[in-house]
Q: What sequence folds into this?
């Protein structure tokens, strides 16, 4: 996963353009069935419109000696995203109106955008900005905004036994930012590979698109089929340090909200479950009132709560292999829990069934040996009246989902439980 991120890191991605296409072309090497879609600029997308396609070849600010004092070739964060083309001489005062820096973090380059309002600019280290003392500078941004271009997104569907779907979505529109972009992509790619190798109860749909406008475009093209989505996650910020954070869907009590909370409880890592907030990543679009899909957001430390967020410090050193590996294990555990969450009926509901003659009960009474396992079996038998799922049992009895899965298999094998 880290090697994939390292390969994608230099690419200058935006909400449209060749950077997204190049990124998706790399992902198709890992996921050959990934479908790439182009949506023409000007296409309506719910209340939005697909913008003109933006591409950039070069950008710089030169001093009087012709030296590049700000250079897009050195770091693609140096240019304000979606900058309009410009070439000319500007006074230091005029240039300053188009510069972005962080006085409180003077060694870092900020990430800034101007997607929907025509503008141009440069982002730079504050120390670097303070060194710009000459009266005039030559400025060039060699970019294009093509009204006949398109927006690009990728989609992978892994069919399951059911047409009911699990939606997994991540954004692919940021330039060289490792945690806030590439970590979600890497985890999603390797999760898709893992799911493709195993039998699936659900159909899994992976969407790789630019933030906000990408999910809006996807939703506008799937209005008749989104009703098949039973569970969903937006995957982002999964490579940085810190514990896990799950932001609930707008519904708050959807099965995905309950499942992630239970998996996190049993996973063994620090975590926090937060209530719905109408700000953040693409869960805002999936959970908008008209759709109200059961889609939460899974991350580690949330956006804006780590010093490296949207700066040049969000690099490949900030994202560690062990951190993305743990995130992958967690997402796999969530999918496994969704797959195995059945509702059962007790086939011997009149009185407690005799577990001993079925090899499910301890041989000697009176002691506490094996008592925990016995309680799991008894809880399942007690609550499996055809109305409660394993999620219900795990919440009411405060039991680990993985242990309930084992117990359900044992009781089903003994002819005592039947999945509905």
A:
């Amino acid at each position: 996963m880290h090697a994939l991120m390292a390969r994608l890191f230099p690419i200058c991605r935006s909400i449209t353009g060749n950077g997204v296409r190049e990124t998706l072309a790399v992902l198709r090497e890992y996921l050959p069935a990934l479908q790439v879609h182009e949506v023409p600029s000007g296409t309506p997308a719910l209340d939005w419109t697909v913008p003109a396609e933006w591409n950039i070849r070069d950008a710089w600010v030169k001093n009087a000696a012709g030296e590049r004092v700000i250079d897009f070739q050195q770091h693609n964060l140096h240019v304000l995203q979606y900058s309009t083309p410009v070439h000319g001489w500007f006074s230091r005062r005029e240039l300053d109106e188009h510069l972005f820096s962080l006085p409180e973090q003077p060694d870092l380059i900020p990430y800034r955008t101007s997607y929907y309002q025509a503008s141009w600019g440069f982002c730079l280290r504050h120390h670097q900005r303070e060194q710009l003392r000459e009266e005039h500078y030559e400025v060039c941004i060699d970019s294009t905004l093509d009204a006949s271009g398109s927006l690009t997104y990728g989609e992978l569907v892994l069919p399951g036994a059911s047409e009911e779907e699990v939606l997994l979505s991540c954004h692919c529109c940021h330039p060289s930012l490792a945690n806030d972009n590439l970590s979600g992509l890497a985890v999603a790619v390797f999760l898709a590979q893992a799911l493709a190798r195993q039998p699936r109860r659900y159909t899994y749909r992976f969407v790789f698109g630019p933030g906000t406008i990408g999910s809006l475009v996807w939703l506008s093209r799937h209005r008749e089929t989104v009703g098949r989505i039973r569970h969903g996650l937006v995957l982002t910020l999964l490579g940085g340090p810190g514990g896990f954070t799950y932001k609930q869907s707008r519904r708050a009590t959807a099965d995905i909200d309950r499942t992630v909370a239970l998996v996190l409880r049993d996973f063994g890592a620090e975590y926090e479950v937060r209530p719905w907030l109408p700000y953040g990543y693409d869960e805002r679009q999936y959970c908008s009132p008209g759709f109200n899909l059961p889609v939460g957001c899974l991350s580690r430390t949330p956006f804006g709560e780590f010093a490296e967020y949207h700066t040049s410090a969000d690099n490949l050193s900030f994202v560690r292999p062990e951190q993305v590996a743990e995130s992958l294990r967690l997402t796999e555990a969530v999918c496994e829990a969704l797959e195995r969450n059945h509702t059962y009926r007790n086939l011997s509901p009149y009185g407690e069934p005799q577990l001993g003659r079925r090899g499910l009960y301890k041989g000697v009474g009176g002691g506490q040996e094996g008592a925990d396992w016995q309680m799991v079996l008894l809880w399942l038998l007690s609550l499996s009246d055809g109305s409660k799922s394993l999620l219900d049992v795990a919440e009411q009895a405060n039991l680990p989902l993985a242990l309930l899965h084992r117990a359900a298999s044992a009781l089903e094998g003994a002819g005592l439980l039947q999945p509905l």
